Amino acid sequence: MSDHDAEYTREILRKVRQIEIRSNRLVAELFAGSYHSAFKGQGIDFEEVREYQPGDEVRTIDWNVTAREGFPFVKQYKEERELTIVLAVDISKSTQYGSSFESKREKLAELAALVAFSACRNGDKVGLLLFSDQTELYLPPTKGHKHALRILREVLFRPTQGKSTDLNRAVQELNQVTRRRAVIFLLSDFIVDQVFSNEEGSAHEVLYHQLSYTRLKHDLICVRVFDPRETELPDVGLIDLKDLETGQTITLDTSDSNTRKRYAENHRKKSEIISQKLKKRGIDEFIISTQGDYSKDLFSFFKRRGKRRFG
């Protein structure tokens, strides 16, 4: 092994260990209870029938057994003992961008690790789908700390083969490989033309129809990551902006206040379109920045979901 390879291996281990320690601490301190209340019990299995008792829900009556026995019976259900979590993570080249200490991909890896270790602590299975404009890797849902660590390593360091992002294809793949009901986290920067159009009935709507179908079958949460430099430009004169996926470069004069204003407004409108379309379809969205700590916001997000289910 060359010195460069050895150094790269040490960097992988260091980064994975750093995120593992922080994630496990947050799971222990904040997320164990909120994770359980937000997701547990969403699936139920039929267990048995018993005789009807006053106060039972009429809709739980098993009419077949009732007709056979001559008096009413109701179905009893039990909460599924384990949950299936699927992390669908965008590792396209646009997620490699970061204007500060962390890239968007590293931030998504942190959140993926937090969910994976929470699931591990609760005895749930976790699967992984990495995508760009193609499926980069699929790991079927499995239990265990070792598996959660592999998920973290893959999200952080898996080389990307694709050249761009295809969310349509990723969601279609999710629908194909996830047969049983699951909690699906779709983690991406959502930088792809198909998410921005507001034209109903257009080809751009295909993605949202796919997401609607996914939500009918599963508990779907979209996590959108952004870098603050993508939302507004600094006043630093002429700069070149390069699209990491197409390689195209444009030059902007950031000393022009109108240029900075149009840039910020364009990002705001695109962000609003995504949020509106997801909300319209009843899909939960959680937005994180590459800068700052999102853990408290995520804790609140989990708590709100728990209250919605039991409130």
Task: Walk me through the structure.
- The protein has nine helices and ten strands.
- The chain is of the alpha/beta class and 311 residues long.
- It has two domains: 3-38 and 82-310, 3-Layer(aba) Sandwich (Rossmann fold), CATH 3.40.50.410; 44-79, no CATH class.
- Strand 4 (125-131) and strand 5 (135-142) form a beta hairpin.
- Helix 1 (3-39) packs across helix 3 and helix 5 (167-177) packs parallel to helix 6 (205-217).
- The chain is globular.
What tags apply to this protein structure?
311 residues; alpha/beta; Rossmann fold; 2 domains; 6-stranded mixed sheet; two-stranded antiparallel ribbon; 9 helices; 10 strands
What is the beta-strand fraction?
Answer: 15-25%
Mean pLDDT: 84
CATH fold topology of the largest domain? Rossmann fold
First CA to last CA: what distance?
Answer: 57 Å
Largest sheet: 6 strands, mixed
- Which sequence of strands runs across the widest sheet? 5-4-3-6-7-10
CATH architecture of the largest domain: 3-Layer(aba) Sandwich
What does the oligomeric state look like here? single chain
Q: Tally the helices.
A: 9
- Uncertain stretches: none
CATH superfamily of the largest domain: von Willebrand factor, type A domain
The class by helix and strand makeup works out as: alpha/beta
Residue share in helix: 40-55%
